[in-house]
Amino acid sequence: MSAQARIRELVRTKLLGRKIDIFAFIDELLDIAKECREIRCRLETDQSLHFELGDQACAIDVDAARGKLRMLCARLSALCHDANGDAVMPYGGLGTIKSAGMTVRFKNTPDEHEFSIKPVAARPPTSNEHAAKATIK
After folding, report:
1. Which helix (H) or strand (E) holds 82?
2. What confidence score (pLDDT) does residue 121 get?
3. Burial level of 122, CB count in 10 A (0-12/13-18/19+)?
4. Which stretches of the chain score pLDDT less than 50?
5. Which residue in 53, 13, 11, 9 sits closest to 32, CA to CA?
6. Which residues does residue 57 pair with via DSSP β-bridges, in sequence order?
7. What pTM was computed for the model?
8. 82 phi, psi to nearest 5 deg
9. For residue 4, which phi and psi values (nearest 5 degrees)?
10. Predicted pLDDT at 131
11. d(Cα 65, Cα 49) in Å, to the nearest integer?
12. Residue 18 CB burial class (10 angstroms; 0-12, 13-18, ≥19)
């Protein structure tokens, strides 16, 4: 199943109607992000969300899209804070979800609502690690 089809199914099963599951939605979205390199989400209209999955994009109808997107951003903020005590503001910022190996950037203000999730970039080796590798060879 393509990433786009997985997102559509995830929205259908976890985000539509009154009985939504933000926790499960974000957990599954983090798994999809590992495969896509990056997932971005923003408000398309008051009744739809725009997802960018790597090089694919789609708009998906979601009732009360603005409120649900703000809930998703709030959940991502909480995960960043819980994972490493980052001083991530609930209205936006950049944080890391260490357990998922993901970097999250989001805005969650009355006027702006969006987020992006991507794998944490590999850390370049320090000069000590460089020297150790050179010695081993």
Report:
1. helix 65-84
2. 77
3. exposed
4. 129-137
5. 53
6. 52
7. 0.82
8. -65, -35
9. -65, -45
10. 45
11. 6
12. exposed
CA 74 to chain centre: 11
- Say whether 134 sits in a helix, a strand or coil: helix
| Residue whose token pair is 């910022």 | 93
Q: Which residue has the tokens 């974000």?
A: 26
pLDDT at residue 72, as a whole number = 95
pLDDT tens by residue, 20-55: 999 999 999 999 998 888 999 999 999 999 999 988
Residue 105's H or E segment, with its range, is strand 102-108
Measured CA to CA in angstroms, residue 84 lies from 57, 72, 133 at distances of 31, 19, 30
Nearest CA-CA partner of 28 in 103, 117, 106, 121: 117
Token pair recorded at residue 75: 């959940």
Q: What is the rounded distance in angstroms from the CA atom of residue 117 to the CA atom of residue 48? A: 19
pLDDT of res. 37: 87
Domains of the chain: 3-136 (3.30.450)
d(CA 39, CA 47): 20
pLDDT at 122: 52
